Each structure stands twice: as structure tokens, then as C-alpha cells.
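Task: fold both queries, return C-alpha cells.
Query 1:
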Amino acid sequence: MTDFRDRIDDWATPEIPRTTAARTAKLVGLPLGIAGRMVGGWGRRLTGTSADEVNAALSAKTAEQLFEVLGTLKGGAMKFGQILSVFEAAVPDDMAAPYRDALTKLQAAAPPMSGRAAERVLAQQLGRSWRQRFRDFDDSPTAAASIGQVHRAVWHDGRDVAVKVQYPGADEGLRSDLRQLQRFSRLFQALVPGTEVKPLLAELAARMDEELDYRAEADSQRAFAKAFEGDGEVHVPKVIASAPKVLVTEWVTGTPLTKIISGGDTSTRNEAGRLLAEFHYSSPARVHLLHSDPHPGNFLLLDDGRLGVIDFGAVARLPHGIPPQLGRMTRLALEGRSRELMDLLREAGFVRPDNDLRADDVLAYLAPFTEPLATERFHFTRAWMQRQAMRVADARGQDFRTGRSLNLPPEYLLIHRVTAGSTGILCQLDAEIPARAIVHRWQPGFAD
């Protein structure tokens, strides 16, 4: 296997631009490249090339550029790409393959920083004698992500640990990327139909400081580890040590959901999906927090059958759990009680007082999303998610107009995004699970 250090000699190499101007140029080139290929595609259509051939070529080239730019920039660009990757199940099959390959790579892959750069960060955060705290430390990273990379090591007491080291300049890169991505949110919207890109980027920007401080992540992980300690279905590794830019936790070994998605058998996919849904819906009640970075690279199926959960940099704080209004709305939509549903939506701020939306139109928009709860077991498929995405993204349809007229109160934004992301993973897994029983047990208001 090629050593990471053979591929990238130093963090500040030309391949990974750090300056605002360099990062901006890369990001500006991405939507311009997409737009240029669209224009070129129309030209080839006019000369007789079939629509299918043109669309396939555009998808492949756009996906390739998307991965190259978002992957090498790390920071906010890669974080955005990782979130988009969860929604690839919504991309229509005739153009999905290139995006599936490119976006899935973003869930776990990124060029690493050099050993010298990592050592500088470790010395700044853990002290000049930081190596004495470890019995062994692998200088080659085992994983690289949006704002940091992970090294495997052995703590001084013999425990296997994961050491997450933040990239130098990650804060500058994150802020620069998010500013630029927000400028081009409308163009990126076309990549994933049915997903609102602009509020997604706004939410990332709002949570930026929390993601950059590993001490906050350590506090969140400690809370999850305490709540799930001894649990027979979920394992959260304990925190060993933390600093603003370095986090040391117990090492966890298992099969990432990325591999189960690509090659797992039916029973394994179903069990992974069930465990993921249980974790997602039970966390607000058990921890008063919601793990808010749902992509397959953050979940592993352990040899003992439990779900391993890592990366707690993004969490939603829910001191009172999930609002019970959400469960009641879901139940009313499931039962077709449009008038009561409309009243509750107005009360909770989803429909503004001066809005003249029709109750039946709102029910028609929301009811299909409750299909997974209509039966004892539901099979989450890409085809189902594609139907939902295309239904709400079709500008010619009533559902599109209804969706644009609804309001999403700020306190529900992250809950909505994480639930949509978790649903995307279930569809990638092609999992059949008892969703109704899980929601009935954990979602306040649903069983009332």
C-alpha cells in the first residue's frame, strides 16, 4: 500500500491551496465548469448527439470535477461534499453512477498533511514531550477527513487509541469555503434534487466554531459514551484526552457502513439499518443530544453486532428531547387528518399566519414522507427516495409550490437535516426495518 507521505510531501503543497485567493479560484471554477458543460451539452444536442449520451457525459465529468475540487480543498468544501454524499440516493439512476462513485469517496478520503505538520500540531496541543504519552504512535494517518486526520496509536497504559489531529489553517479554509459555496448555492442545488442547499450551508456556517474546537467534541462524545455505556446495540468509544486541536479516544474496529452499502448481504444491510435508526431516534431521549453528521463513514458494524459511532464534532443540543409536536404532526399526516395537521403546523410556525395554503395540499405534500411508518416493516430504497426528491423538486407540480410556501422554524432545521441524512443512508443500505415500532418507542407525541 502506498504510504500517505509518498503522495503528499507537506500540508502546504501546491495541490492543497491554503490562501483565500487560491481556494476561491478552485471553488469558482467548479460551478463555472458545470455551467460550461451544460452549454456545451446543448451544443452537442443541436448537432445530433442524443440526450442520454450528453447527460451521461455531463454527469461523469461534473462528478469527477466535484470530487477533485471538494476533496483536495478539505475544510468546508469537503464537509459540504460529505453531506451531499448522503443524498446521492436521491439522484436519478440514469445519472447516479458517476455521482455515487465520486461523492462516496468524499465520505472517507482526503489528501493528508505531512508527518512534520502533524508533529507540530501535536507538540503545540499536547506539549513538546507528547510522544511520552504514547507507548506507540503510527506517524502515517489511517484516515483523513474534512478538517482533521486520524492516527492509530497505543496510549501509555496499553490501550489502543485513535488520535485526531486538526489540519493547520482548517479554520481559515472552513470560513473561506463556506462563504464561496454560499455564493453558488443555486448551481449546487441542481446536483441533488429535493435537497435545500442554501439553508444547509447556512447551518454549517453557524456551527463552524463548534466543529473546530475538539474540546467541545470531546464533551459531546463523553455524554454519548456515558449514556450508551453497557448498551447491547450501540458502542461509543470513550475519550482519553482532548485539546482544542487534538482528540484522543479509544480505538474502535469494525466494518464501515460504506463497505456494507457496497457489498453487504441483505441481512447485514437490514441489521445495520435497524441499528442506525434506533441510534438516531433514541439519542435525543437518552442523551438530549442528536449526532448531526450522518454519513456512512461515521458508523461501523462491530464484530459483536453492535453499531460503533464516531465523530461527534457536530451535535444538536436538545435539552428536552425531540419536540413532541413533531411526533403529533407525523401521526396526523399518517392518518390523513389534514385540518388538525394544518392547525398544528400553524401553531408550531411551519405555516405563517398570513399564508393561504390549503390543508389538503399540505397533507398531499407531507403524507408520502410518512410511508415508512404505515406498515410494520418498510423497505428503504433508492427508488423510493428518488420519487420523493423528484416530487418536491418538480417546479410544475403542486407539491413544489406547497413546499416553497412552508416555513422551517430554526429549532427544527438540524433535526430535519439529520433525519433526511439518516434516511438517505437507509436508502443506500437498501434496508428493510421496523421503522414504525422504532418511532413509536422513541418519538414523543407519535403514540399520543
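Query 1 returned. Query 2:
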Amino acid sequence: MEANTQKHLDDCDAQSKANESNQSAYDNLEEEEVTIDSNKIVDADKRLDKIYRKLDFRIIPALWCLYFLTSFGSNCYGLTLTMNSSEGHSLAQRLKLTSHDTSTASALYYVGYIIFDVPMNLVLTKVSAQTWLSRIVITVGLVYTCYHALTNNKGVIAIRFISGMVGAGTWPGMSYYVSLWYPNHRSTRRIGYYYTAAQISAAVAGLVSAGFQKMDGVKGYTGWQWMYLVYGVITIAVGISLLWWLPDRPFAKQRDGSTNKLKKAYDMFLTPPYPLKGDDVEIHRRDIQERYTLLRWSWKDIVQILTDLRIWPLIIMYFGVVGTGFGLAVFGSTIISVNNPSLTSIQVSLLYAPIWLFDLGGILILTPFADKFRRLRPWIFSLACLIIIAGLLVMTYAHGSWNKYAGLLIAGFGLGPTVPICMSWGAEIFQARYGDVGTAVSAALISGLGNLGSVTSTYALYSGWPADKARLYQYSNMMLVLMLGVSIIACAICALIKDRIRQTH
């Protein structure tokens, strides 16, 4: 009996050891499989990183130049109001512009954007993306070349509206274009990269205008006339080059089978080489294939987007930050001059540039976090708005002109990441539900209707509020603070409702 019992116990021990051995082997195998899968994921991510870097080298410089040149004109306009003012040769002095004239012209510029942003972006969903973006740059260059021939206030008002009309669709068009090539979790950083062009163009405009003021009187032209002529010609040339430089779409839209010879010739000579080759094409396609759904749309889709409650908080967010940005862009040189009347017009232009270099710093530092931590986008946006508010308060209430100037620099830093976050967040929310048209229309609505903030800051505030000049624009600055506060509230509302309304099924 004892022998049998002992044998049974020995058998149990042996089985237990075998089970432990098998479990250990299974655990080792499972760990090995997890390690292999993890390695595959890491390798795939690294491969994708390389693919998107290849795209960056081709796409981002082209978009950067596009946005630099289309932004430069608006920055030029603000500076020409004060260029060579000591000689009586500024745009405002030569054409005898009143503050009402300048504020009306600035407002109509943004009205052009508001009216035409959505139609222009809808066209972009139907035609060659690269051709349409090139068209925008070429027509902007043509219109700004005509600025040198202005002779009266009516001409300024009319041409500012035309400038907004031909430039409409630039910013939402680029946001839509980026969504064609990059998934949303990689888009904010890319939007931030080419958005730096606006800041650099503002800085360069200040430096360039200082140089063109030295040309005042050459061949009978003022400094601002020379600046518009040279800028317009360069812009037209770069716009034409974009036809070969900027790739079209990663995956061509379905053609209608047309055999039109002109169309064939166009495709032959104006279709740039594809930026990816070999296996990279298929890997890229798989990574963004979710983006290529619902490519066809109807007017019903547009109505659905317009009635989607989530679009309105995004518009209000954009309203506050872009209103502040353009207010400081157009009247930054005026604010510097009023705060320190002893500065010459050239010194004012040179001091205008660092504001936008600080803006560039904000983009480079904060937008990568908005991509990496997408759930924190509302917090990052709100933090940036608080930095702008702090800068405006310093600019308004600090003692001494240089302390006030430091406030401008702080505000510039905060402005940087706000607009890219608005655009990428809008694409994230609306592409999932509405597809291609959701990306295009949401970008146009956010940019177009949000530009009412630009109208407010340029028409109702600063030069549109003459009595505020004696207060060193204290009330105008505080109205911008109020607008930014509303943007923060709208951001909180958007964060609360974005996952509770019209979700995909």
C-alpha cells in the first residue's frame, strides 16, 4: 500500500514538473511572439517614418513657398501704410487714405475670403489639386502687381476685396491637400511646418520693406510701389513652377474616360513625378486608405456639415485666434510706432520682424505635442491662448515702450500653434463622418467664417477706432483678450461634444 502511494506521489511530482516545463516553454514562446510582433510594429513605424520624411522633403517646401508668398502680400499691405512716412510717401499719405478707408479695405479683404473659401475648396475636391493651388499663387501675384498703379482710395478698397477673392481657398486648400497625403495623427506638425511661412513672411516683409524704403524715388516710384512690383513678379514665377514642383494626389481620382487632346497634353507636360517609388507606394496607400472613403459628395452632405453642431465651436476658436493674429499682423507696425514715437519708419519695420520669429518658435515647440498627444489638443490650444492673453496684458499695461514691445513678442509666441491645431482638429472630427467633403468643407468653413475675427480686429478695432489711438490701443487690445477668452470657452465645448454628436456607425 505504501509503495503504491509513494509511486502515485512520484508520478504526480513528475507530471507537475512536466506541466511546469510545458508552461514555461509556452510562456517563453508567447513572450517570443510578443517580442517578434513588437519588433514588426517598430520596424513598420520606422518604415512609415522614412516614407513620410520623403514626402516632407517634396511637399512641405512647396507648400511653404506657396504660403509664404500668398501671406507676404497681406503683410506688405500693413507695412506700406507707414513706409517712407517721413517723406510723405507712404501708401496712406500718397493716396490720402482716412482711417475709415484703411479699415474698410482691410475688412473687405477678409470678406472676399469669407464668401469664396467654401466654393474654392469644393472646386479643389473635383480638380487637380496641384493645378488649383498653383492657380491661386499665380492670380495672387497678378493682382498684387497691380497695386503699384493705385491712385485713389476707391482703388485700394476694390483691390483689397479682389485680393481676398483670388486668395480664397489658400489656407483651407492646403489643409485639405495635407489630408490627402498624411494621416491625421501626423498632420498638425506638417501644418505647423508650412504655417511658419506666414510668420517668416511677416518677419521678412519687415526687413524687405526697410530695404525698399531706400529705393523711394527711383524711376519716379515710391518704395511701396517697388515692393509690390518685385513681389508680384516673383509670386507669378513661383506659382508657375508649382505646376511641376507640387505633386498632385497620391491616388488619382476616377477619370471620365475623356479623350480630349488638350487634356492629354496637359497631363503629359504638367504632371509632376510621383514622390514615392516601389514598395513605399503600397505601404503609404495602406496607411492612409481610410482617408480615401466617401470621395463623392452631394449638396446634402454640405448641408449636414453646416448643421453639425461641432463645426461652430471650431469656427469660434479660429475667430478669436486669427482675429488676434491678423490684428497684430496688419497693425503691429502701427502699435510699435504709437508706443515709441521716436522710432523711424525703418526701425519700426525692423522691430516688426522678431514678433513673427517668436511665433515661429511657438509652432516648432508646441505643435509636435499636439500630434503626439491628440487627446490633449484642447489643453494645448487653451494654453497657447493664455500665453497670447498674457502678452496682450503686458503690451497694454507694462510701463515703458520696450516692456510693451516684449508683450508683443510673448503674444507672437502664443499665436503660433493655435491655427494649426484648429485645422487638424477639424479634419480629425469631420473626415471620420463625412469623408473627403468633410475635410474640405470643414476647413473652408473654419477658415472662411472664422475670418470674421480678422474683420473685427481690422475694421472695428485699431485704425477703425480712432479714439483708441490716444489710449495706445488699450481698448482694442482688451477686445482681443475677450475674443481669446471666448475661443477658450468654445474649445472646451468642442472637447465635450465632439464624441457625442453624429458619430460614425
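Both queries returned. Flag for query 2: The chain has one domain: 59-271+279-497.
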